[in-house]
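Revision sheet: structure tokens.
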Amino acid sequence: MPESKQIQYMFSKVARQYDKANDVLSLGIHHSWRRKVVRWSKVKPGQRILDCATGTGDLALEFKKAVGPEGEVLGTDFCPEMLESAPEKSRWKNLPVQFLVADVMNLPFENESFDLTSIAFGIRNVEDPERALREMARVTRRGGQVIVLEFGEMDTPLVGPLYHFYSERILPKIGGWLTGQPEAYEYLQKSSASFPSKSEFVDLMRATGCFSEVQNYSLSFGIAYAYFGRLKS
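Predicted:
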């Protein structure tokens, strides 16, 4: 896996076209995944949420809808360029979210600062995923949740082969064409294909020793998975 600086540089190059590429490559389905994660989380109005590797802020904004005006949502990302469009999106949607530059492996918050901490499509690009999970757990209150949304491996017998062909051969080419950065989308495809999913990622979360229970849910036949870790009380 490339070092953090290399990944940061790569995302800085695709930042301006990142939203457009996501919408085209997923046919917009990634928005429904985020909505489902927020709904399944059962967050309540007034709660405090941290979204790590927030990128352009999509998941953070979904959480803001759920916690309401009395709640607080912060979105962090270690790539400043990825955050550039997030404040404008927040204002346009009238969903006030605070955004700041921070690395998920070294979060600038005190212990137990949040009711829930999340990361969407970012954990596979972290140098040390287990360290990131521990850090997310550290800033989350006892009994709270750490949620990870990440790509998986579709394994249905009929559709699976077609999806694999699309993700391996077509997706990197389209992503590269849309952003002008084909190397970035070749890396992103390979990182999602090689990253542990389902029971393997559940085992990784359990290995941190931070969670009393870990559950996972399939999205779109396994294209993505949502992992919910409940912190020990």
